[in-house]
Design goal:
single chain, Arc Repressor Mutant, subunit A, pyruvate-formate lyase- activating enzyme, 2 domains, three-stranded antiparallel sheet, binds S-adenosylmethionine, binds iron/sulfur cluster
């Protein structure tokens, strides 16, 4: 990495949201978002005949805690918890269907199981969970609805994959993080490569046509050498997609991350070097870089979506289907419509209790006003296409706010007749989150008083 790039990283490595939503969660104004209001918003969104939607099911359980983890999890080895949880999700699903019968008539583009670890559930229980849901939905005509799941290879066997194929799942995302044994030890996640390799082969053999690996850069004791080794193994197994996440170090939210020795954590330019090493290796072997931190082979739907301008981003990260509604079921699950964000109760016992009582839970939410909607659309464009049209009235502000980034060649303006586009240059890609800050009116109006976001690099 050149001295100039190192200097840029030092300059722009500031706390910034990852923009899986706008407004970002810490800026939500929950006043007015009751469960009744949420149902009203959702009913309104589903009232359009041609509206398309996505469904997310959250399974919070994990058998052990990886110490880097920023997800909403419930750590347990007690598998008797599976049944009551499945029952709670079914109750929630029934509540929605009863309140909004149109749900069953609108085209569902995508269903995703995330967590936690969805394969904490037994193969039979996965089918039991999905059965009543799949029975009530309408898929797109002539196309296979995208069905995907996140799995922890340490807790997933061939029987899980078979059960999932039986209910039409064709995409599997495996948590890998890093193949280096020492890094794995430090993050409390021992996962010998054979486990990932065997599961990948099994998935392919069973007809999963897209295998994704989640990798993370910035974990303790990762080095350029260890990253090169991890990439060599990754390329040997050749997943269709790779999410190469920047380790989000947020110990004030996730105290377990305090277990790391801070000095072991690569930061700033040393951290970015790890991304660049992986990037170079992947681009050299036919992968395309997508958005901020994803890579895909040209045969994968994420690549086709990005080429066709259809790439989308929501709470699930980058996805290949743009839908107006995301309905999340399960504890802490987040949903969105054009006008509203909504998060379910975050504590598992309270969530299950509310489901028993037959009530939709609301932990928090946000009703989008008109500037929110405009900013959200512009941020989404920039995060997915690296370019966004500016309104004429935004130009002077953009020129001033982004002056340093323009001067450093990280963003520029592209003219097309009377239209002006803000564009993130190739050199600016690492700083995409920084460029989005321009459209984050809420953050600009009220800078956070305490640490809430991880750093942009
Ligand atoms: C729900 S987990 C994936 C499935 C399964 N639980 C597993 O770990 O294999 C989602 C992904 O989030 C990513 N992740 C979790 N905590 C993170 C953090 N602090 N920073 C960056 N990525 C993180 C990991 O790559 C992880 O695979
Ligand atoms: S990374 Fe996955 S397996 Fe590990 S604690 Fe987080 S959700 Fe659970």
């Amino acid at each position: 990495m050149s001295v100039e790039t190192r200097k840029l990283i030092e300059k722009y490595d500031i706390p910034a949201p990852r923009y899986t939503s706008y407004p970002t969660v810490p800026y939500w104004d929950s006043s007015g978002v009751t469960s009744e209001k949420w149902i009203e918003e959702l009913r309104h969104a589903f009232s359009k005949d041609d509206v398309r939607w996505s469904l997310y099911l959250h399974i919070p359980f994990c058998e052990s805690l990886c110490t880097f983890c920023g997800c909403n999890t419930s750590i347990t080895k007690n598998h008797t918890r599976e049944d009551p949880y499945i029952e709670a999700i079914h109750r929630e699903w029934d509540l929605y269907l009863k309140a909004i019968p149109e749900i069953g008539e609108r085209i569902l583009e995508e269903i995703h199981l995330g967590g936690g670890t969805p394969t904490f559930l037994s193969p039979d229980n996965l089918k039991k969970l999905l059965g009543p849901i799949l029975a009530k939905i309408k898929g797109p005509e002539g196309v296979v609805m995208e069905r995907s799941i996140e799995v922890d290879p340490r807790r997933t066997n061939e029987a899980h994959l078979k059960a999932l194929r039986e209910v039409g799942f064709t995409r599997v995302s495996m948590g890998v993080q890093d193949f280096d044994p020492e890094v794995q030890r430090l993050v409390n996640r021992i996962q010998p490569i054979e486990i990932t390799e065997n599961l990948t082969r099994a998935a392919r053999g069973l007809g999963f046509h897209s295998v994704n690996y989640d990798l993370i850069y910035g974990l303790p004791k990762q080095s350029p050498e260890s990253m090169l080794r991890t990439m060599k193994e990754t390329l040997r197994l050749r997943p269709d997609r790779i999410a190469l996440y920047s380790y989000a170090h947020v110990p004030w939210i996730k105290p377990v991350q305090r277990l790391f020795t801070e000095a072991d954590l690569p930061t700033g330019a040393d951290k970015r070097v790890l991304y660049e090493i992986a990037r170079e290796a992947l681009l050299g072997e036919g992968y395309a870089e997508i958005g901020m931190d994803h890579f895909a082979l040209p045969t994968d739907s994420l690549y086709t979506a990005s080429q066709g301008g259809k790439l989308h981003r929501n709470f699930m990260g980058y996805t290949s289907h743009r839908t107006e509604i995301l309905l999340g079921l399960g504890v802490s699950a987040i949903s969105e419509t054009p006008g509203c964000f909504h998060q379910n109760e975050k504590a598992l016992p309270a969530f299950e209790k509310m489901m028993e009582a037959g009530k939709i839970t609301t932990h928090r939410g946000h009703l989008l006003n008109s500037p929110d909607r405009e900013n959200r659309e512009q941020i989404l464009r920039l995060m997915t296409t690296l370019e966004v049209e500016l309104k004429t009235s935004q130009l002077p502000d953009a020129t001033e706010f982004l002056a340093e980034m323009i001067g450093d060649g990280l963003v520029d303006f592209r003219k097309d007749g009377a239209r002006t586009f803000l564009r993130v240059t190739e050199a600016g890609r690492p700083f995409l989150r920084n460029a989005c800050l321009f459209f984050d009116q809420r953050l600009r109006e009220k800078a956070p008083q305490t640490r809430i976001f991880s750093k942009s690099i």
